[in-house]
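Can you please make up a whole protein chain along with its C-alpha cells because I've never seen that pairing?
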Amino acid sequence: MRIGKVERKTKETEVMVRLNLDGSGKAKVDTTIKFLDHLLASFAKHGCLDLELRARGDLEHHIAEDTMIALGEAIERALGKKTGIERMGDAIVPMDDALVMAAVDLGGRAFPDIEAKFTKRKLDDLSSDLVVHLLQTLATNGRFNLHVKVMRGKNDHHKAEAIFKAVGVAFSRAAAKSLRRRGVPSTKGVL
C-alpha cells in the first residue's frame, strides 16, 4: 500500500497527515479553517485518495501553510520510488461558471505555476490570497510540477473548489499504477 504519514510540530503549529494514494476518496480533515477543510476534502474525493488530516496552530496563515507542507511531504513518502506510475496527469474541471485546468508531473522536480485571481478578500474563513501560495507550497514540498490555470469563472468559491478538484484528478492520474509501464518512468532511470 502506498501510504504517507507525516507529523509536523513547530512552535506555531501541530499537523498530522495520513494519505493513502490507493484509496476511495474518504476524507477526515480538520484544520480549524472550514473552507480549507472543504478544499482538501474535494482534493481527496476527486483524486480517490484517503486522507486523514488534523492541524492546530496560532494563526490562519501558519496552520494553512504547515498543512500543505505536511501534505506535500506525505505525497512524496507515499510515492516512494515511483516505480510503475503514469508520472503525468491532467484534468479540466468545470464547476458551474468556473473552468480550471490542472497538470501534474511527478518527476521529482518542484515547479508550481498557478494562475488564479480572486475578487473577494476572504473565501468564507480562508484568505483568498492564500490559495495560490498553498498550491505552491504543496508542489514544492511534494517535489512535483503543478500547473493550474483558471480559464474562466466569476464566483470565487467555485473557482477555488474547481482548482482543488482538478488538482486531485490530475494528481490521481499521475500517481496511478500503469498497466504497461515497468520500472521508473524516466529515460534517466531515476526520478
User: Anything to note?
Assistant: Residues 8 and 54 are 11 Å apart (CA to CA). The mean pLDDT is 96. The helical segments are 34-46, 60-79, 130-142, 156-175. The chain has one domain: 3-175.
